[in-house]
Write a structure and sequence with these properties.
The protein contains 10 helices and 12 strands. By secondary structure, the chain is of the alpha/beta class.
Length: 267
């Protein structure tokens, strides 16, 4: 009888231990594009300070398409994209919520000795017509081109906005970076390299962010930008998701976006 009483007390004690619900324990991942990743991670840090009980994660890039696939399949609750949703993707019940406009920057290794290009020079560099930086007033270095895959959101914007890019064929000697972070790393590490990606102020550290036709990416006259948006599936909204969405549209988050060189979207 005594043994029974002890067991009962142990079981009762376990039942009385506070437990977190499955929702509270679940990690809220925001997966997808590498565009604006550092900016969104900083927003995430601010969110975690305000909501320490929510386990938020903003992992490395799997691309806009990867984020869309993860949210559409139900593998993740929220995603991040740098391109509009296609009609076929909207049919999955995805909701698209823009949070920032991010300029598409062209940046180069400082060894190039170049701080600005015309749009015509940029086209000739990427197509392979110009092969040495001396041809555009820079150092005597071979041009090392870093491009992105055809589905990349920044490339799509450049094709739509930069003169001549719509039908341009990349130089066969170009290197394809699979993520935004890979493109930035290549430009930082390889002498003579030129690359492109979403603009953020940290790019100014150790890289030459090029003016195009006299305009810096943060200038009003700069032609190219991507829109960073959150996505989720209709009918899946919960308290964690709502809290993060509300925070991403708060004045604190909007200040972070501006500090990174982005433009907050209208609320």
């Amino acid at each position: 009888m005594r043994a029974y009483s002890v067991c009962f007390a142990l079981v009762l004690g376990l039942l009385l231990i506070p437990v977190r619900t499955a929702v509270a324990e679940a990690e809220l991942k925001v997966v997808g594009t590498g565009d604006g990743l550092e900016m969104l991670q900083e927003i995430g840090e601010g969110f975690s300070e305000a909501y320490p009980e929510i386990n938020l994660s903003i992992p490395p890039s799997i691309g806009s398409g990867g984020g869309i696939a993860a949210v559409s399949s139900g593998a993740e609750r929220m995603g991040r994209v740098a391109r509009p949703l296609k009609e076929s993707e909207v049919e999955f019940g995805l909701v698209y919520l823009p949070i920032a406009r991010i300029p598409s920057a062209i940046f180069a290794h400082p060894s190039t000795g170049v701080s600005e290009l015309t749009s015509d020079q940029l086209l000739k560099l990427y197509s392979g017509e110009i092969t040495n930086w001396t041809e555009v007033g820079g150092a005597d270095l071979r041009v090392r081109i870093v491009r992105r895959e055809d589905a990349d959101s920044t490339l799509q914007v450049l094709r739509a906005t930069m003169p001549g890019w719509r039908d341009m064929e990349f130089s066969p000697r170009s290197k394809t970076a699979l993520t935004t972070q890979d493109a930035i790393s290549s430009a930082r590490e390889v002498e003579g390299a030129i690359a492109f990606g979403p603009y953020s102020r940290p790019l100014e550290e150790g890289l030459s962010v090029l003016k195009i036709d006299g305009h810096h990416p943060t200038d009003d006259g700069y032609p190219s930008a991507v829109v960073l948006a959150l996505i989720y599936k209709e009918g899946t909204m919960d308290d964690q998701m709502k809290a993060f969405i509300d925070f991403s549209q708060s004045e604190k988050a909007r200040t972070m976006i501006r500090n990174y060189g982005g433009v907050p979207t209208q609320r």
